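Work Package 3 (structural annotation) set out to generate three-dimensional models for the target panel prioritized at the project kickoff. During this period the team completed the workflow that converts sequence records into discrete structure tokens, so that structures can be stored uniformly alongside our sequence database. As a representative example, we reproduce one entry of 285 residues exactly as it appears in the project archive.
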Amino acid sequence: MNAAVQKVKSDSGRARLGSFIYDGVAVIVCIIFLVPVLWAFFSAFRSSRDLFVFPPNFDVRGFTLANFQAVFATGAVARYALNSLIVATLSSLLTVLISSMAGFALAKYKFPGRRIILFLILSVLLIPLQVLMVPVFLILKTFGWVNQLIGIIVPPAATPTGTFMMRQYILGIPDEMIEAARLDGASDWHIYRHIILPLCLPAAAALGIISFTWRWNDYLWPLIVVNNQDNFTLQLSLANLVGTNTVEWGTLLAYATLAMLPVLIIFLVFQRFFLKGAISASVKG
């Protein structure tokens, strides 16, 4: 009896120690990621004279809005923000639509070569983005989409990650529901629209948030496609603030803070759906 009690106490102690170590590591990782972001946020409200004070601090005294006033003085921030919003929103919607359709087909349709197609889709992840840029750019040039927002929106919309994520989630939907709908005379489009999509909302929300973040922060592809400043996104305009000889760090950090806020707000508002969808997609199938 005593041996059993001692074993239970020993196991409980090890569990508490493991939990303590896990929590400690999680806190350290959070600090590593959060401190630079907080420093950039607080520095956006500081003058250039106080920006590089050592050691770094988060003192709110002496805060000023001069950096933000300099950002809005250019008058083009609203247009760049609108371009980024259009690109990120439309590209994310296309990503969810294409990925859910492809995931539905790969999860619920039995046809020869299904696994080969899935393998080929996932193998795209092994190809560096730089290798695909030239052929994709030539295709856009043929369509007349160079220097247009549509050239930024469409090419990144179909992603192997999104297709695999939606497929894994759809695999968890019972086949009996689809068969019952077919017996009632429902078409494949009707099944997709009224059964698959509603049941996939958590995964679709998670994929939409991830895609929106990717497209909002994307810099390299818009840099290649667009050279007309009227079609610049926030990230392209942000890079233009870095001069050849001098850099207005206060203005740059204020601009970066404004560019970061929309993604942060979207994640905070929809984090419940994001976590639910991401976890469900990872464990199903």
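The chain has a mean pLDDT of 83.
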